[in-house]
Give the backbone structure.
Amino acid sequence: MIWSRAAAGLGLIVALAVASTPAVAAPAAAPAAAPVCTAPTPSTTQPGYLVADPDCALDGTPFTALPGAKVHTGIAGGAAYRIEVPGAWNGGLVVYAHGYRGTGTTVYVDDPALRQHYVARGYAWAASSYATNGYDVGQGVRDSVALIDVFRRVTGVRARSVIMSGASMGGHVTAVAIKEHPRAFAGAMPYCGVLGDTALYDYFLDANVTAAALTGVRIEFPREPAADYQQRWREQVGRIVPALGLPSGSTPAGRTWSAVVERRSGGDRPGFDSAFAYWNSAPSLPPLADLPFLFGLYPGLQGGTAGIAEGNVAGNRHTVYRSTDRLWPTAAEWRLNRDVLRVKRAVPADPGLSGIPRVDGRPSIPVLSLHDIGDLFVPFSMEQEYAARAARNGRSALFVSRAIRGVGHCDFTPAELTQAFDDLTTWLRTGHRAAGDAVLNRRAVADPAFGCRWTRGTHRGFVAPPCPANG
């Protein structure tokens, strides 16, 4: 679900430039033929799907081994894969799960952000395209877990320990994989992940129905949207947006909506005003790229099925919306809760791998996660949801969350990711729990310095009081 990739095209450059002839006039071996990317091949498991060449990036750049490493590529079960093993392999393997890639019918594999760091630290890695696109977490789990056996088959050796990692939807894949296969993994590192399963769709619902209620625009939640519903929604949003004064929320209704969204996305925290303006200035995902970001994600547009479930996965029948942190709701908050459209969930998170798979929050291995506190696509509240579930299950000691002061989705610097991975592997090696943030402590989250401890470098667009010199 990495936003920049969700809108990326899927075209392939088929031919690469031919290597130039050597300038030396002495006898020499003929230059090696330039690698050529093959066209996507029909899937053997998913009718209508194509599988892109795992030996090339989508822009035609060949996938080649890092110095001293060896690569393996192929297609298994309708999913392309890449594997890289360093020369000085330490016996560890990282299985990486990618994020949401829209609903196209060409699947492709790419490299994890930490590829070079894995290899430098002696870890092999493996990544899958998955056999399907869309929000198909179950397929992502099946194809990612299958890589452990693919690795053994193509390398001839078995990894001594396996770490599961993934970004965005890949974080959801990670959380479900370690639940379904607890003995297969030694540790996990989701980041910007959907760690709250259907709670993500509840958040999308909350943002839209409260915007409508605060502006007096009557909306509906069709279980089977008619062909003209998308256009009708556009017209309704066309009345909501100016009444809210977006992107900054300059009207009274807009300021209240900002406060409601802040609380539904993680609570009072530094930098939220900049995050609110950033995401309301951003276009939504196609085919609703003409709307402000959150409005294109309204679950009513697809009957609340998320394109994968058998019924509506979003609900707010018992949600109490707040715009303040007072002990008791204000009169204005009571009015909002009276006026907001209420939607009944039809299908819960699935206990297995169908629909939207459930995240139990019952880790049996160390889990270290990162999240941007200004992310309003997959909000920071996902960390809190997982932390709360882990606490209820008596597993808090196995979950560490780190807050990063950024407004984007999966907006992490290399230093933030590498430190997290190194701290996770130290935790696995020594048994000493890595440090993190108190994401369930409302006062800690509201502190102006929240997120300073683990943020490394500057994140464009994030505006908040500067971190203390010793932050």
